Task: structure prediction
Amino acid sequence: MGAIYCLLSAAAFGAMAIFGKLAYDEGVTVGDLLFVRFGVAAAVMLGIVWWRGGFGVLPRRTAVAAFAMGAVGYAAQSASYFAALDRIDASLLTLLLYLYPVLVMAGAVALKRESWSRRRLVALGLALSGILLVLLGAATDRFDWLGVALGVTSALVYTAYILTGDRVLTGIAPLSLTALVCCGAATTYAVATALRGGPTSLDARPTAWLWLVTIALVSTVGAIILFFAGLARVGPSVASILSILEPVVTVGLAAVVFGESSSAGQLLGGLLVLAAVVVVQWPRSRVPQDRLGGLGADGDGRAFVAHARHS
Result:
């Protein structure tokens, strides 16, 4: 059941880009999508946390840090992701974003938290080769470099979010962390919406609201709860590897729903990126105990997935 929960979570996260594109097709703007997504998700997550007994004895400093991580880091990552989604194919974006496990590994080494190893160098080489093939395969006369830049920015911001959280968000229950992060992001987008004079596209057709609510309940709250349920049963290493189903779902649904197609070179590049993720996450014969919600003790980033997930 743990593996099934992780796979269902990955599928729900992978479908989010599709739901986002469908909402855009109904006239919803990026700002309004994020305002509704995090507003609904924050309300539901707070209800779940209180139903399970509340936040307990949570240090104020930790609570403030989690809220700030959502208000700044997670909000910035989501903004760059959904802005990129408005400009480039969902399949291309998901492969750009999935550089982040390797970037986390490289960041941990650059910060001298870990050191290079043969496995890490192989993973980095696979990821860079794969993303080069993806970009070369996508390049055309109408290639949207701004969209690609926003996609890469999303991966970089999420990498910084994880590396920062590994140091400041320890000892907090996953659901409490998720609720506070969602509240922080919801606050940021509520303020941004107020500053621009209120929502501008939420009077769209009922179908638009269907996609917005689906993003909030299925691809945010449901996906997170399923992931934590799986994580508790199979551990962070296995959960991380199973999560690579996410970009596969996005690419597959994008082809079915929008007719997005990938060249042989792009498909090979995508496989190399996913192979790099597996190399980074694959457990060793002796796996040190990981901290829930941060980098694994050996620095390969297996437990980073316990953070509030990307996008």
Observations:
- Confidence is low (pLDDT under 50) at residues 286-308.
- The chain has eleven helices and no strands.
- Residues 2-306 form one domain.
